[in-house]
Design goal:
- The complex is a heterodimer of chains A (248) and B (67).
- Chain A is α/β, with parallel strands linked by helices and 248 residues long.
- Chain A has 9 helices and 8 strands.
- Chain A has one domain: 3-Layer(aba) Sandwich (Rossmann fold), CATH 3.40.50.970.
- Chain A is globular and about 50 Å long.
- The termini of chain A are far apart.
- With 67 residues, chain B is of the alpha+beta class.
- In chain B, the strands form 2 sheets. A two-stranded antiparallel sheet of chain B has the order 1-4. A two-stranded antiparallel ribbon of chain B has the order 2-3.
- The model of chain B has no long low-confidence stretch (mean pLDDT 95).
- Classes of the chains: A alpha/beta (248), B alpha+beta (67).
- At the A-B interface, β1, α1, α7 and α9 of A face α1, α2 and β4 of B.
- β1 of chain A pairs antiparallel with β4 of chain B.
């Protein structure tokens, strides 16, 4: 009998630090699988954010840098410019990328820097206790919007893929949902395209992955998937928003 | 005949693999692991086909598939 699916060697042999059902582990696994498949563990650098995503530092067996809150794209810019042979990716959540780090990501994308960003969107601040994030849906209850997000006072959910797709420089921008096994496979293919753009040195790539936060949504992982299908996937549709000429 | 192995010490019993499996192969186990979770276990009698859906969605990368 042949082993057809195994834990990648680029993941440390220990349980993740994430809550049960959290898809950060899943996204870290996808990146670790790709790094292993392309045999680039020796020259890959992950730039981690502040937030839950930073706990992947215990997971990846290749190099990681932990940036200040929201500044992962700035650190990745410096790293990829000073060490052009490295494959650099940032790994950021929606509070980190969409709020405090909005300026960094927009300008790094606008300059077409040579790194890729993996953006995990679970519509809330996970690590700090479930506060409203820029990506929180209208009506969604969080600890800072206990009656639900009201557009009159808190605005509307920010759609980062659509915003960044207005720029000319990014080579690849796409959004995938991790709700189903098929979605996870599509997400991996999207991440593969973004990584291949890095291997060819063609510039900035951005992949947004719709995720869940069972702890702060107050739902079981199974009910989180239902909520995703009914709510978040309607606001954040899957799709490729910008494609490099070579990717077409 | 295919089969899966589950690293019980990594499992947090989130149940994503239980929802993903179309054959009902995976069930919550009776014991607890070192973290205190009721880790899932395969039911050898349900006829695993090695489709890998459970392994693909496992956030802990705890499932390995043989076929």
């Amino acid at each position: 009998m042949e082993k057809v699916y195994q834990r990648p060697k680029t993941l440390a042999a220990a349980p993740t630090r994430y809550c049960p059902g959290c898809m950060h582990g899943l996204v870290s696994k996808l990146m670790a699988e790709l790094v292993e498949e392309y045999g680039i563990a020796g020259r890959t650098v992950a730039v981690l954010p502040v937030g839950c995503g930073a706990m992947s530092k215990n997971l990846f067996t290749f190099d990681v840098v932990c940036a200040a809150h929201g500044r992962a794209p700035a650190v990745a810019t410096g790293f990829s410019r000073c060490a052009p042979d490295k494959i650099v990716f940032t790994y950021q959540g929606d509070g980190d990328l969409g709020a405090i780090g909005l300026s960094e990501i927009v300008h790094a994308a606008n300059r077409g820097e040579r790194f890729m960003t993996v953006f995990i969107n679970n519509s809330t601040y996970g690590m700090t206790g479930g506060q409203m994030a820029p990506t929180t849906l209208v009506g969604q209850k969080t600890t800072t919007t206990p009656l639900g997000r009201d557009p009159l006072t808190e605005g509307y959910p920010m759609k980062m893929c659509e915003i960044l797709s207005q720029l000319e420089a990014p080579a690849y921008i796409a959004r995938f949902s991790l709700r189903t096994p098929a979605g996870v496979r599509r997400a991996k293919e999207g991440l593969r395209k973004a990584l291949e753009i890095q291997l060819r040195g063609e510039g900035f790539a951005f992949v947004e992955l719709l995720s869940i936060c069972p702890t702060n949504w107050g739902l079981s992982p199974e009910n989180c998937l239902k909520w995703m299908a009914e709510q978040s996937e309607k606001v954040f549709p899957e799709g490729e928003y910008s494609r490099a000429k070579e990717v077409k | 005949m295919a089969r899966i192995t589950i690293e019980a010490e990594y499992c947090k019993a989130c149940g994503l693999c239980v929802s993903a499996c179309k054959k009902g192969v995976i069930r919550f186990g009776g014991g607890t692991n070192a973290m205190g979770y009721h880790a899932v276990e395969p039911d050898e009698t349900k006829g695993c086909v090695g489709c890998k859906l459970c392994a693909v969605v496992c956030p802990e990368a705890a499932i390995e598939v043989y076929r």
